[in-house]
Amino acid sequence: MKKSLLALISMIFFQHSFSQTTPRSFIKDSLDEYITAAMKDWQIPGVAVCIIKNGKVEIMKGYGVKEMGTTDSVDVNTLFMIGSNTKAFTGTALAMLDADKKLSLDDKVQKWLPDFKLYDPWVAKEANIRDLLCHRLGFETFQGDFMYFDSDLSAAEVRKKMGKLKPMYSFRSKWGYTNSAFLTAGEIIPKATGKTWAQFITDSILKPLGMNNSLALSKDINTAPNKSAAHTVVLGELKKIPYGNIDNLAPAGSMSSSVNDMSKWVMMQLDNGMLEGKRIIPVEAINQTRLPHSIMGNGGHLFNKAHFALYGLGWMLQEYAGRKIVSHTGGVNGFVTSVCLIPEEKTGIIVLTNTDANGLYEALRNEIEDAYLGLPFRNYNKVFLDYQKTTEAADEKEYKSSRDSIALKLPTALPIAAYTGKYVHHIYGKMNIKNENGNLIMRFEHHHGRYATLEPLGGNRFYCTYNDPLYGRQKLQFTVKGNKVKALTVTVSDFVEFTPYEFIKIK
Q1: What is the predicted pLDDT for the residue at 349?
Q2: pLDDT tens digits, residue range 387-426?
Q3: What per-residue confidence (pLDDT) applies to 19?
Q4: What is the pLDDT of residue 20?
Q5: Does residue 461 contact residue 468 with C-beta atoms inside 8 Å?
Q6: Domain 409-505 in CATH 2.40.128.50
Q7: Count of CB atoms situated within 10 Å of the CB of 191
Q8: Beta partners for 421?
Q9: What is the predicted pLDDT for the residue at 12?
């Protein structure tokens, strides 16, 4: 569901030396060594990889273990949560219904969901299904996700809160990654078919493809027999974390799958909707999902210039080395994944990993991509790792500086009791701050079990440490007027959301 490391660093063009190896020799001679070394570099317990060429699986393999501290090996049927790679399934499902004349992708959303609302009633009236699937409603990337992600809100409540958010941009003027829009799109499927999104995905895509181990909903991975655990890295230490509960955003990122199952999805995509001579998806639906709808940016690549980056209906579209690249990444609690299609070359790449703190999933994809396009070996992993080490060093420096400031016991502008009380955000809802055993603890209405510790940095500034590492560590500042606390502006990690939330003190 979340952003990728490459999305950040591909904005920067690196000059980096690389060995001039024979293309494809990397795959034949060095792949296992490369992956094994990179797993150590990034502290990744387990990886699964598949490469497809000309309708056949050339490589399909698991590496490492399902869970840190165990010997239970990853195999080709081990499930990983695939996050936003779910979006291509949702886009394809709606394109199938368009091809079958069950609906039109140009239908207004309110035709199917009369209760659909947005901040601007005119936009809500004019928005069509395509707008939902290509991220052009006007929202900032991830806007609202803190409210929705891993919360106790139902899908209906998510849609209601989405309707109250004020977009950052005008309608259709700018691409902004919107998970709640994909949820809304998925909610149209029951209206057109009588089946839930999960049922339709299972009956119309997963079962016909023989993706029998794949799961539509995140809740089901808990009881799956062959599954990978979720992991992250906190201050250099690998940790197991709970699975994300994101079924309230299911069409945006709730699915789990294996490289064996995903190979069937990719082979079908590369054969324009066919698998083993059988038509699974109408070719018209495949084509619809790959039509450019939104401009993401100018494009760019670490080593080869790309002239554009576009978004289809659940797929990212880019030109690279003269070929069209159809791809997506997925990031959710403890997992990051990558799926890449090079249709002109009949090549597909799948990389699944069981930690959300690595760049291998994209570095490896790029490495394989280059090998099959006849380009030299670049060692993307080293480039990504060097960038990550620089970032981590800066984070550690900032963390140490903050801990040093806390140790100084700098006085707060007001007595600690003044910061406690009840707060409210006009859309999110309630937040409470209490003094619990000498610590200021911040708890949120819709994120049960999650809390943050606030430590004084002096004045009205506090260092916020969330108990869930997904939400990160932040410096927060209270708004004070006339010696009274008026509000607290809350932020979380960029993995979740960029947009701040101002909670107003009400008691």
Answers
A1: 98
A2: 999 988 898 999 999 999 999 999 999 999 999 999 999 9
A3: 35
A4: 36
A5: no
A6: yes
A7: 13
A8: 433
A9: 30
Dihedral of CA atoms 187, 268, 317, 329 in degrees, nearest 10, equals: 70
User: Taking a C-beta distance cutoff of 8 angstroms, is the pair 188, 94 a contact?
Assistant: yes
Contact 57, 263 (CB under 8 A): yes
What's residue 61's pLDDT?
A: 98
Q: What does CATH list as the number for 5-70+78-391?
A: 3.40.710.10
Residue 20: other Cβ atoms inside 10 A: 7
The pLDDT score that the predictor gives to residue 5 is 39
- Residue 235 has a pLDDT of 86
Q: With b meaning 16 or more CB within 10 Å and e meaning fewer, what string describes 291-329?
A: eebbebeebbbbbeebeebbbbbbbbbbbbbebebbbbb
**Residue 249 backbone dihedrals phi, psi, to 5 degrees:** -125, 30
CATH 2.40.128.50 domain extents, the chain = 409-505
Burial class (CB in 10 A: 0-12, 13-18, 19+), 448: exposed
Tokens at 87, concatenated: 């979006």
From residue 246, how far is each of 128, 151, 179, 471 by CA, in Å? 24, 8, 11, 15
| pLDDT value, residue 24 | 66
**SS3 category, 257:** strand
Tell me how far apart the alpha carbons of residues 394 and 160 are, in angstroms, rounded to a whole number: 39
Beta strand 347-353 with 421-425 is unpaired
Question: What is the CB neighbour count within 10 angstroms for residue 102?
Answer: 13
Residues paired with residue 17 on neighbouring β-strands, in sequence order: none
List, by residue range, all CATH 3.40.710.10 domains of the chain: 5-70+78-391
CB of 375 closer than 8 Å to CB of 322: no
Judging by beta carbons within 10 Å of its beta carbon (0-12, 13-18, 19+), is residue 479 exposed, middle or buried?
Answer: middle
Residue ranges of the chain with pLDDT lower than 50? 3-22
Residue 146: count other Cβ atoms within 10 Å of its Cβ.
Answer: 25
pLDDT score of 305: 66
Please state the three-class secondary structure of 170-205 as a single string: CCCCCCCCCHHHHHHHHHHHHHHHCCCHHHHHHHHH
pTM over 0.85: yes
pLDDT at 117: 98
Rounded Cα–Cα distance for residues 310 and 365 (Å):
19
Tokens representing 218 are: 């995140």
